[in-house]
Structure to design on (506 residues):
């Protein structure tokens, strides 16, 4: 069994002031090493909860979550790095110091972590921005710093929770291309949460469609096509229609619930 | 440059108006600046009050002790109230209510408890400095973006590391502002305490000059006190500006 991430029959209920809410219901999923697995579904379907479980920030009610064969009970920065929708950079640190953060926590000596972070800034397109503070960077740059912070600790797995969700569409498309490059070069295992059909189809080796709350896995699409993908090809347009068909019903249900 | 000119202008206008009014009215009660200058010279030459230096030092010492205690207790209480939900819900409203009481009403009882010497001034300076520091810690903790804390945890930070590397820097600006206000109020507390009743310190000298109608000496002493206060606040302001670049 070569699956790096294994999720078996997990569920999650949250207690709210208006009673319990079931976020996830009996979800099982396996992600192999080197995959780019995208989770897509309507708002509130528990995508982020699922990602939180993989990252050790959320505990599952029942079932189990294994990373590299070991049950996840807390964040494990030696195996898993996370990028959030909100960049969450520290405003008192420069871009470079933000990228260094994870290494600093792991006790990597100053010169070493500075070297690692500096080297990362090149492919991040931030070489000239090392000494800038987050408030001096654009939204796309900030998100790249956050991705750099995750890449710096060099984990096998990177979790991304709508990392480009707050960006404008053009920046978003470019960031997607850029991320694809990085992923193909590093061969990391990525679990990527998004609302974007385009991102799911352009980037993933596999797309997991989730249902409206309580989130279950509705369908899994395998995408073995090579990169970069011609998104206007008949095959991709057809896949997009299929994917939208699956998601549309769930989104409608999610909207009706409100 | 223009700002400095304007500042100098208002000072000049103020001094001239003071001089004019004081001469027209009663120069003994209204002491014109022209009378203050010689008094100031005598004061600094240790002519009028030979014990000026020990008095200044005593007041500074009282301020230092009061402020140090206010910082220690303010940070301690602030973090205890802000980081522990139960303690915060139980006691934070009490702290807020006590802060609303004009602190000077406590001073007579402080003199009864601590006597007329330095202890009662320190206690009063402490009392005044304590509240703004505590409340700044509480406000600062509320301002910390919880998302940043989650990020730190995701990268494996333990609670103490989250506190040192994320929480403290994230609230630094508010914290330094509170420390600055606390310093100003500790200074006020000590000096007001000395004026309300003491045998030594700047406040006692001021009281002495005032009581004997040595109004020019009195104003000169006030000027010296002002320089001390403005100087300490200027230092605090510099620290605050350094902290500013830490915030968003």
């Amino acid at each position: 069994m070569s699956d790096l991430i294994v999720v078996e029959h997990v569920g999650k209920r949250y207690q709210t002031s208006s009673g319990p809410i079931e976020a996830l219901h009996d979800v099982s999923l396996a992600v192999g090493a080197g995959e780019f697995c995208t989770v897509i579904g309507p708002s509130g379907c528990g995508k982020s909860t699922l990602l939180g479980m993989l990252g050790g920030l959320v505990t599952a009610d029942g079932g189990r979550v294994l990373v590299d064969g070991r049950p996840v009970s807390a964040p494990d920065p030696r195996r898993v790095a996370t990028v959030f929708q909100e960049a969450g950079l520290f405003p008192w640190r420069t871009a470079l110091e933000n990228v260094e953060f994870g290494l600093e926590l792991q006790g990597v000596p100053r010169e070493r972590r500075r070297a690692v972070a500096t080297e990362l800034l090149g492919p991040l397109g931030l070489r000239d921005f090392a000494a800038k503070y987050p408030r001096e960077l654009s939204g796309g740059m900030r998100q790249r710093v956050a991705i750099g912070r995750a890449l710096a600790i060099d984990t096998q797995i990177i979790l991304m929770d709508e990392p480009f969700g707050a960006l404008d569409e053009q920046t978003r498309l470019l960031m997607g291309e850029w991320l694809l490059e990085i992923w193909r070069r590093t061969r990391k295992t990525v679990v990527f949460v998004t609302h974007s059909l385009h991102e799911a189809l352009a980037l993933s080796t596999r797309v997991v469609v989730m249902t409206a709350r309580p989130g279950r896995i509705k369908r899994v699409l395998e995408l073995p096509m090579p990169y970069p993908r011609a998104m206007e090809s008949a095959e991709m347009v057809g896949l997009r229609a299929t994917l939208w068909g699956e998601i549309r019903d769930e989104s409608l249900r999610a909207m009706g619930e409100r | 440059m223009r700002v400095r000119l304007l500042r100098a202008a208002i000072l000049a206008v103020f001094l001239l108006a003071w001089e004019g009014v004081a001469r027209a009215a009663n120069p003994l009660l209204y002491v014109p600046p022209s009378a203050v200058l010689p008094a100031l010279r005598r004061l600094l030459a240790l002519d009028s009050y030979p014990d000026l230096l020990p008095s200044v030092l005593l007041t500074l010492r009282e301020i230092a002790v009061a402020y140090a205690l206010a910082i220690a207790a303010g940070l301690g209480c602030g973090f205890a109230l802000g980081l522990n939900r139960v303690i915060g819900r139980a006691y934070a409203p009490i702290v807020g209510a006590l802060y609303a009481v004009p602190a000077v009403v406590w001073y007579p009882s402080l003199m009864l408890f601590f006597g007329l010497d330095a202890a009662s001034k320190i206690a009063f300076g402490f009392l005044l400095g304590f509240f703004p520091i505590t409340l700044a810690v509480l406000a600062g903790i509320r301002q910390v973006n919880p998302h940043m804390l989650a990020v730190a945890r995701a990268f494996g930070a333990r609670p103490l590391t989250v506190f040192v590397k994320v929480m403290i820097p994230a609230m630094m600006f508010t914290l330094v502002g509170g420390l600055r206000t606390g310093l100003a109020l500790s200074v006020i507390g000590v000096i007001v305490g000395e004026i309300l009743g003491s045998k030594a310190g700047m406040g006692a000298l001021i009281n002495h000059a005032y009581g004997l109608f040595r109004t020019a000496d009195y104003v000169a002493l006030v000027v010296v006190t002002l320089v001390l206060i403005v100087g300490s606040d200027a230092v605090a302001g510099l620290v605050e500006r350094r902290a500013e670049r830490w915030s968003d």
Observations:
- The mean pLDDT of chain B is 89.
